Amino acid sequence: MTWDGVTITSPRNAAVYVNVFEEDAAPSQCVQPKNPDRASWMTARGLTFRNVVATGMGSAYAGCFNCAPNEPCQDISFDNVKIDTTKPYKCFNTRATSSGSSPSPC
Q1: Under a CB-based contact definition with an 8 Å cutoff, are residues 78 and 98 in contact?
Q2: DSSP 8-state secondary structure symbol assigned to residue 104
Q3: Is there a contact between 67 and 47 (Cβ–Cβ < 8 Å)?
Q4: CA separation, residue 78 to residues 20, 37, 47 (Å)
Q5: Residue 105 burial by CB count (10 A; 0-12/13-18/19+): exposed, middle or buried?
Q6: I need a labelling partner for 58 at 20 to 30 A (CA). Which of 39, 64, 77, 87 fits?
């Protein structure tokens, strides 16, 4: 799946948000559930973020990747993603690559 040419203004939470868990008590904090090792969680693969710009972030994280230890999110690609924030990506069990992006993702 590819997101290309997206502009995000003043998101309520992270500009880029991937959460594979059913439980999501606090999206603004990006926290793992109590049992992240459960075998039945989903995963995310093959995601591309290209030419994405986010402004007006306030205190939000640039992004959140909340993935399971037994099924990490992988093949995540960032190309020319610019997120104007002082809070970096918060990532759990994620493998990503980056080119020309700021801040640098997971």
Answers
A1: yes
A2: -
A3: no
A4: 19, 27, 9
A5: buried
A6: 77
Instruction: Give the whole-number percent of the chain exceeding pLDDT 70.
Output: 92
Q: Which two tokens stand for residue 1?
A: 């799946």
Task: Please give the model's pTM, rounded to 2 decimal places.
Answer: 0.87
Lay out the sheet containing 63-66: strands in order across: 16-19, 63-66, 90-92
Contact (CB, 8 A) for 20 and 66: yes
Q: Which residues contact 70 (CB under 8 A, 6 or more apart)?
A: 37, 39, 41
- In angstroms, the Cα distances linking 98 to 22, 59, 81, 106 are 28, 23, 9, 9
Mean pLDDT of 49-66: 94
Cis ω for the linkage preceding 11 (within 30 of 0): no
